[in-house]
Each structure stands twice: as structure tokens, then as C-alpha cells.
Amino acid sequence: TEAKQNSEIRSETVNKLVSASITLGVMISLLLIEYGQDIVAILLERGKFGPEDTNHVASCLGIFAPSIIPLLLMNPLGQIFQVEHRVKLVIRRLVFGTMINVVCCYLFLFELKLGASGVALATTISQWAMLCSALILMRRIQLRIHYKRHLGWLITLIIFGLLDLGISEALRAVHPSHW
After folding, report:
1. Least CB-packed of 2, 9, 57, 143 within 10 Å?
2. How would you class 40 by CB atoms within 10 Å of its CB: exposed for 0-12, middle for 13-18, buried for 19 or more?
3. What percent of the chain has pLDDT over 90?
4. DSSP string, the chain
């Protein structure tokens, strides 16, 4: 029974980590999508880097933004596997994600001719694939992930985040001098 309690405590800790990462990741992703062009312009528009380049980089940043959640979770989940002496599971996850990335990059770059946007999309897809595989592999170390709870939380945050962005866009249109 002590081992079962320990497993439940570890599972709850991992679920809290997932919820916190979803919260932070959604906020960062929506900020990058909404204000990415402004951020890129401030940081990079100098010399030969002009407005057209800013638009292109901001577009790629918007495509890459959804991969923030997996990026926030990959290192902590990898450390959990290492602590549990399950390094093979980390390697499987990395090999799986790398294979997905290579295939998607090939398809998006050479077949669909999407350029840098295709690379950003391939990276986003492979990051989510690695996260999903890591969460599925958690079962092997007796950690229960509350998938429905996290999916519900993710959808809720996205809905409210998009609603908030819509309101800010409406306010920007009404009072452009304040933005």
C-alpha cells in the first residue's frame, strides 16, 4: 500500500506539472501569436532586415508558438524517466520525435515547398509527437496522467485566451493611439 500511495503522490505531482505547463505554455503561445510581429520588429528590424522579413519571421514564430507547451514539459518529463532509471524510454521518445521531424521536414520543404514555415510546422508537430509519446510512456513507470482533465484545461485556456485576444483587437481598433 505504501508503494501505491507513493505512486499516487508522484502521479499527482506530474499532473500538477502538466497543468502548470499548459497554463504557462498557452499564455506564451498566444502572446507570441498576437505580438510576435511587434517583438520581431523590435528585435530584428535593423539594416537589411526589413518589414517583409519581419512578416516572414513572425509568421514562422506563429506556427512554432504551439510547441511551447511540449518544450516546457520535455525536460522535466525526461528527468522523471532518468530518476526512475528508464533512460531507454527517453531515447525512444527522442528517436520517435526526430523521425517525425525528419519526415515532416522532407514533406513540407521538398514536396509542399513551404520553406521556413514548413520547418516551423514540422518542429511543432514533432514536439507534440514527443510529448504525446512521453505521456503514454508514463504508464510504464506507474504514473497516471489525467488526460481528460488536461485536455479540458487546455481547451478552456485556449478559448478564454482567444476571447481575450479578440477583445484586445477590438480595443486596438477603437483606440489605436493607445497601442
Report:
1. 2
2. buried
3. 45
4. -HHHHHHHHHHHHHHHHHHHHHHHHHHHHHHHHHHHHHHHHHHH-STT--HHHHHHHHHHHHHHGGGHHHHHHHHHHHHHHHHTT-HHHHHHHHHHHHHHHHHHHHIIIIIS--HHHHHHHHHHHHHHHHHHHHHHHGGGGT----HHHHHHHHHHHHHHHHHHHHHHHHHHHH-GGG-
Q: What is the residue whose three cell numbers read 506539472?
A: 17
Render pLDDT for 8-45 as a digit per residue (tens, 0 to 9). Answer: 888 898 899 999 999 999 999 998 988 888 888 888 87
Q: Which amino acid is at 122?
A: A
Question: What predicted TM-score, i.e. pTM, was given to this entire model?
Answer: 0.82
Grid coordinates given for 129: 509527437
Q: Which residue's C-alpha cell is 508537430?
A: 125
